[in-house]
Amino acid sequence: MASGIMSGAGGGGAGLGGAIFVRSGSLVMSECALTGNAATGGMGGSGFESGGVDGQGAGGALFVSVGATATLVDPTFSGNSAADGANVYGSVIYPPWVVSVARSGTTPTSSASVGFTVTFSEDVTGVASTDFAVTTVTGDATGIASVVTLVTASAYTVTVDSVTGDGMLRLDLIDDDSIIDVTSDPLGGSGFNDYTEGEVYTIDNTPPTFAAISATPDPANAADTLTITFTASETLAVSPDVMVDGNAASFVLLLGLDYTYDYIVSGSETEGPVTISVSGSDPVGHAGADNGTVTLDFTSPGAPSGASASDGGCSATGGGCGLLALLLSLGMLVCLRRRRRTVRA
Description:
This protein has one helix at residues 320-344, and strands at 15-16, 20-22, 26-30, 33-35, 38-39, 57-58, 62-64, 69-73, 76-78, 81-82, 88-89, 92-93, 98-103, 114-120, 132-139, 142-152, 155-164, 167-173, 200-203, 210-216, 225-232, 241-244, 247-248, 250-255, 258-264, 272-281, 287-296. The model is unreliable at 1-12, 44-48 and 305-345 (pLDDT under 50). It has 3 domains: 15-46 and 54-93, no CATH class; 98-203, Immunoglobulin-like (Sandwich), CATH 2.60.40; 210-296, Immunoglobulins (Immunoglobulin-like), CATH 2.60.40.10. Helix content is 7%, strand content 41%. The radius of gyration is 44 Å and the shape is elongated. It is mainly beta and 345 residues long. The longest helix is centred in the C-terminal third of the chain and has 25 residues, at 320-344. The chain is built from 1 helix and 27 strands. The chain has a 4-stranded antiparallel beta sheet with strand order 13-14-17-16, with no helix packed on it. Strands 20-21-25-24 form a 4-stranded antiparallel beta sheet, with no helix packed on it. A 4-stranded antiparallel beta sheet has the order 23-22-26-27, with no helix packed on it.
């Protein structure tokens, strides 16, 4: 009896995990971006009677084998493709993570109590003040994380009390796996996953000061323009007030913390050393003031001591002494000439 010859074709190979294939064990990735990956099974072969089956295409970006696990913290997927699981395939854990730690008040501030809003990627429990620490970023500003208040199941307000010093402070989350989601997955996955990228407060408890107050020219005469310069110790709310012997000077320039003002001497000011006063406030309202001096001299150059420019006697403008000296000189010359003529006679 003759029998027919049967012929079939082989199946296509599997395409598993366009970017990552986890065969065994566990994989943990944080803030990863998986973009533009594809998992495509091979085509089945062609046979005399039947064609082969196409291979499996699963896990466009990530494939996790049976018995293995993958933990993804704050992942980003885009443009991945597969017949089964465009992004991932297998046992994948998505634990909660910290989205942000943001100021809930204004900065800078001189308040002894400041607040932060801590936002998580999903609903969590177990959030307590012991999960947070206050970090000094600059200067000696510090405080204590004391109260945690529930806003929503995924957002909490943390109050920092006993704030002292000057500088910048930040609230950090110190993970000890006590914060969990509804499926008991710990924050960031198993292990310590601290968050130290929150916003900062600038703490200001010190009034501004003004240094190196000087004016040129010094001494200055009537109608001179004084150029006044000084340096502030911090950024101010507005330009400070500058007075010369009680009269206002005009703002000219600010470079960094270095100020320049102008003042035109009128001649009505007090003659001699006079006060340059500088006063201003920082953004939280602390007021500060400092003084400098400049000498005003209204005596005309070259005038004798005790004589003024308006003196009608022997003065630079009166002309009396100069004319007398000229007349005396001419008289002496005449006398000398007459005397010589007498001798010759």
